[in-house]
Amino acid sequence: MKIRVKKQESRVVFAIISLILLAGLMLTISLCIHSTVDAAETRRYKYYTHILVEKGDSLWDIAGKYTSDEYRSRSQYIEELCRINHLPGQTIYAGEILVIPYYDEEYK
C-alpha cells in the first residue's frame, strides 16, 4: 500500500514539475516572439530632405529640430550636416539650401 501511495505522489510531483516547466517554456517563447515583433515595428529608415536657411537659423537650431535617437548628440548631427553639405565650418547663411538627414518609421 505504501509503495502505491509513493508512486502516486511521485506522479503528482512529476506532473506539477512538468506543468511548471511547460509554463516557463511558453512564457519564454511568448517573450521572444513579442521582442521580435517590437524590433520589427521600431525599425527606422534614414531619409534626406532639404531646407532653405532663413535669417537667424543656426546649425544648432536645425539639429534641435531634426536630431533623433539615432545620433548620440546634437553635435554628432551637426558634424553630419557639415559633412554632407560640404560646409567648411558651422556658419550658415540665409538663402543657402541644406540637405537634412532624418529618420522615420515609415518605409517610403
Give a written overview of the molecule:
The chain is α+β, with helices and mostly antiparallel strands and about 110 residues long. It folds into two domains: about 1-40; about 45-105, Membrane-bound Lytic Murein Transglycosylase D, Chain A, CATH 3.10.350.10. It has helices at about 1-40, 60-65, 75-85; strands spanning about 45-50, 95-105. The longest helix has about 40 residues, at about 1-40. The N and C termini lie far apart (about 75 Å).
CATH superfamily of the largest domain: LysM domain
How are the strands of the largest sheet arranged?
A: 1-2
Quote the CATH topology of the largest domain: Membrane-bound Lytic Murein Transglycosylase D, Chain A
> Helix proportion of residues, in percent?
40-55%
Structural classification: alpha+beta
CATH class of the largest domain: Alpha Beta
Strand residue percentage: 5-15%
Calculate the terminal CA-CA distance, rounded to whole Å: 74 Å
Identify the CATH architecture of the largest domain.
Roll
Give the H and E element order. HEHHE
Outline of this structure?
The protein has about 110 residues and is of the alpha+beta class. The chain contains 3 helices and 2 strands, in the order αβααβ.
Summary tags:
108 residues, two-stranded antiparallel ribbon, 3 helices
What secondary-structure arrangement, pairings included, does this model have?
Blueprint: H1 2-41, E1 45-52, H2 59-66, H3 74-84, E2 97-104
Helix pairs in contact: 2-3
